[in-house]
Amino acid sequence: MSEPLHDERRLDLAGIGAGPFNLSIAALADSHVPSFTAQFFDRQRDYVWHGGMLLPDTHLQTGFLKDLVTGVAPTSPHSFLSYLVAHRRFYRFLNAELSTVSRAEFSDYLRWVAEHLPNVSLGCGVREVDFVDDHFRLVTDHGSHRARHLCLGTGKRPWLPAFAEPLTGPRCLHAENIAHRSRDFSRQRVVIVGGGQSGADIFINALNGHWGTPASLHWLSRRRNFQPLDETAFTNEYFTPDYTNWFTELDDATRQREVLAQKYASDGITPAALLNIHQQLYHRFDVLGEPRWAHLLPHREAVDMESVGEGFRLWTQHGLTGDRERFDADVVIFATGFQSSLPECMAPLRERLALNDDGSITVGDHFMIDWDGPSQHHLYAVNAGRTRYGIAEPQLSLMAWRSAVILNHVTGREVFDIGDDPGPVEWRPLEARDP
Ligand SMILES: Cc1cc2nc3c(=O)[nH]c(=O)nc-3n(C[C@H](O)[C@H](O)[C@H](O)COP(=O)(O)OP(=O)(O)OC[C@H]3O[C@@H](n4cnc5c(N)ncnc54)[C@H](O)[C@@H]3O)c2cc1C
Q1: How confident is residue 361, by pLDDT bands cut at 50, 70 and 90?
Q2: Where is the signal peptide (predicted)?
Q3: Which ligand 1 atom sits nearest the alpha carbon of residue 344?
């Protein structure tokens, strides 16, 4: 690094990234373990939550009580309710009777917490992490730091089909970039690939003319239909500490099978968004009689794409008939999700970490990464253990609980009560339980 390094502080815990998951740890450490020196570094100067997908009419899939702290510390000053009170809109919020908070409001709540916390450094990317002598050494945009323990919270990176990678640009893009610049889809042929919540959010905005009125809009999904998120009561039991503890006891193959089977408990489209889309389509094309320029095409897997002149030709395969279909488009948006990967700044430690075949991290007990360094130096990771901890791991639902598990472990104290009474569902075989 060419810049002079300064401020070689010795921290108990250094966090790379301050997205909601590490921010939750920062918030709980600030209020409940003040003697513990932790610092979380995020490259974002102006804090925003998935800013590239912050579109109008987008909402949380989870309730606002599943905020940074409330699940384990309901009196914390960093709760969503504290945010509402501090902004003098508690009563108006109640009167609005919102069933879900907008992503814009939740993003602003996260920003408010991040900007208030002394243990969060914004505008401070981590460039390099290594283990030197008896500590982790972080080189950041504004100096270097030493830390006994590390928590990796850099999120996931967008995933695109391989055939689309070389074509990416302003007109062939991943959903996560759509709101990063102004766009004009007027009179354009627009194709959205991906039948999850992000695809739905983009479809509804395109339908409502957020980027101008397209000539045509095709929404393709590999799924057999535009599948709803299962938000029913017993499915929601998956998002509890009790279930998560049980899940970690299962063997690898069983856990992987269950994660696949539970897909729509975390990956579907909210019923409210589906109904909104259906009602708008009905009103526009059936009642008002607009020529039908918006089309929903489930059971289509995008299999190939080429550039043709200024635009693209996308090929799909039908999931039931095997038919190949062709879509000519001016704009193609891939709402095809995210994948885990080790961030570049961790390259010096790569050889020392246990990684899966796809390069993702292996997360063990207490959300720790297996590594070959001294065992008294812990390397934690959040949002990296879906096959270890289940479908709740990449979600907001249990983030406060996970933060409490990590803080209890790293401090060696029972700072938070992380126990959970068994719920109504008997997940474990009865004979395996204590009498
Ligand atoms: C559009 C969208 C909506 C979602 N909505 C919901 C929802 O409603 N409910 C739900 O339960 N889950 C939701 N999720 C899933 C999940 O809760 C979020 O993805 C969540 O943001 C994950 O938090 P994170 O902290 O792991 O990662 P991120 O939010 O991705 O944050 C990672 C942070 O790390 C920083 N960073 C990266 N590299 C470095 C570096 N080298 N140095 C410093 N900083 C770095 C980034 O700037 C970023 O701030 C949603 C996901 C998306 C994409």
Answers
A1: confident
A2: none
A3: 41
Whether residue 431 is predicted with pLDDT greater than 90 in this model: the reply is no
Pocket (CB within 6 angstroms of ligand 1): 16-22, 41-44, 50, 53, 60-62, 125-126, 153-155, 198, 343, 345, 382-383, 394-397
- Distance, C-alpha 435 to centroid of its chain: 39
Helices 271-281 and 197-207: crossing angle in degrees, nearest 10, is 30
Average pLDDT, the chain: 94
Query: Which domains does the chain possess?
Result: 9-156+340-411 (3.50.50.60), 158-228+267-334 (3.50.50.60)
Residue located nearest, by CA, to atom 25 of ligand 1:
19
**Mean pLDDT within 380-394:** 93
Q: How far is the CA of 22 from the centre of ligand 1 (A)?
A: 9
Instruction: Give residue-wise pLDDT tens across range 43-98.
Output: 999 999 999 999 999 999 999 999 999 999 999 999 999 999 999 999 999 999 99
Pick the residue whose CA is nearest to atom 30 on ligand 1.
Answer: 155
Q: How far is the CA of 403 from the centre of ligand 1 (A)?
A: 15
Query: What atom of ligand 1 comes closest to residue 66's alpha carbon?
Result: 11
pLDDT on residue 362: 87
Measured from the Cα of 140, ligand 1's closest atom is 42
Mean per-residue pLDDT for 288-295? Answer: 97
Measured in angstroms, how far is the CA atom of residue 50 from the centroid of ligand 1?
Answer: 6
The one-letter amino acid code at 207 reads L
Q: Which residue's alpha carbon is nearest to atom 14 within ligand 1?
A: 395
What pLDDT digit, counting tens, does each position of 129-163 carry? 999 999 999 999 999 999 999 999 999 999 999 99
